[in-house]
Each structure stands twice: as C-alpha cells, then as structure tokens.
C-alpha cells in the first residue's frame, strides 16, 4: 500500500469519528437502572473463575460481588493501557507535522482515550467497586514501554489490548445481566475503538514495509511479551484477597479452568490472526502466547 492510500484510510477514520462519537461524560452513561444491584459487573462467563468448583460453591450475590470487583480490575488495566499508549504515541509524534492525516487521527484517538479512561473510572465508581494496585512487574513493564516502545511495538501492544477488550465488551454491552453503566460504557468503547484498531493495524502494516528480519524478529517477541503481561495482569490477587478468598485456592481454580482458557483464546483470536497475516508470529512468540492462554 502506498503512503497516499494509507493517508486516505486515516482521513476516512477521522471523518467517521466526526460522524459517530459519543459524549461519554454525560451523566446518563453511568446512571444506574432499577435492578442494577443484582446485576453483574461483566458477563459472568468472562470471570476467570466461571464454572470452577469455587464458582459453583458461591451464592449468586457472591458471584455478583466477584464480577463487580473483577471488572474494576479489567477496566483498570484498560485505563493503564490507554494512558500508556498515549505517552508512547505522543512521544513518538511530538515533532511530527500536525497536518499529517495520521497525526490528526492520533489527536482524535488521544481525545477518545482520555474520555474512555474517565468513563471507565466513573463506571467503576457507579457500581460501587474500586481499583486495585497492579502487580509491580506490570508497572515496571509499563514504565519501560512508555519510554522505549518503537512504532510497531507500541501499536502492537496497544492493538492487543484493544482487540481483547473488543471481544469481551461486545458480550458485556448486550447482556441484560450486566449493570447498566458497564453495559453503556462497553457499547461506547466498542464503537469508538473499532476506529483505533483499524488505525493501529494500518500503522503497523506501514511500519513493517522494508524492515530488517532482525528488527521484525525482536519486535515480534516484544509484542508477545507485552501482550502476555497485559493478559496476566487482568488477574490480580489483590482483588481476591479483598473479597476474603484464599489466593492459593483461587489460583489453582483459575489455572485448571478450561472455560477461562477458551474465553481468552476467543478474545485473542482476531489479534493472533492479524499477527500471523503480517508475519509477526514466530516460534518464540507462539510459545509465549500459549503460556498466556491466548493461542
Ligand atoms: Fe479506549
Ligand atoms: Fe484505543
């Protein structure tokens, strides 16, 4: 694809953003609905504990409490990614010509991301949940990522997060059993992120043209490591500690949960397909994706 063909894609994405974007700051987004108290934080099938002996032993009220805490963890990782991607991408574009179609779209994307982060924070608050401190390893990776991630690596890890959230949130937004603020936030996010994903895919394709085999090899592995840490970061022992659940039992239930593996593989499917098509899936990367239950 030529540079002008890519530019045409970026212009179309920006036009689409003008036509269909939401005001996620509207108080209506996070307004509770009657019956919300009994609704889950996310579709229960996405809980890493769903279907395990531990899950089966819980009352429905306990399950609701669990998924409400788990969704806060998931969305907390989402916010962390959205902020990290802005730092990485804006850093790389700081001196770029602001009239470039890709740079203009990036400005729009960052505006979206800030509003998403605010929306998620409000949604979590409105269902009475809170965010938990992340694993130190994840924060360390975030620090390194923000400072050194180069084009295809930055867009690759960002795309991983966006694709995985897209699959999950398509379920959340249509499920009557999910609390209204989360359902609405998921809908807004799915619509606006579809453009971000198209943007990231195009930026990666453009950047891969003519790169050396060595660089492709290194980038492939780093995208895999980043994605692995993000996927693992969705499960945080502090969530379960706060609910009074024994972490060792939780961990062994999650580790043995085939349903959880199937859901995560399903979530990663479009991303893995993209990587494979673009030549960003080598032996080492496959091994890492298998370790993270994404392949
Ligand atoms: Fe977002
Ligand atoms: Fe995004």
UniProtKB/TrEMBL annotation:
Pfam families in alphabetical order: AurF
Upper taxonomic lineage: Bacteria, Bacillati, Actinomycetota, Actinomycetes, Mycobacteriales
Record organism: Rhodococcus tukisamuensis
InterPro entries: AurF/CmlI, Ferritin-like_SF, RNR-like
One term of GO molecular function: oxidoreductase activity
Protein name according to UniProt: p-aminobenzoate N-oxygenase AurF
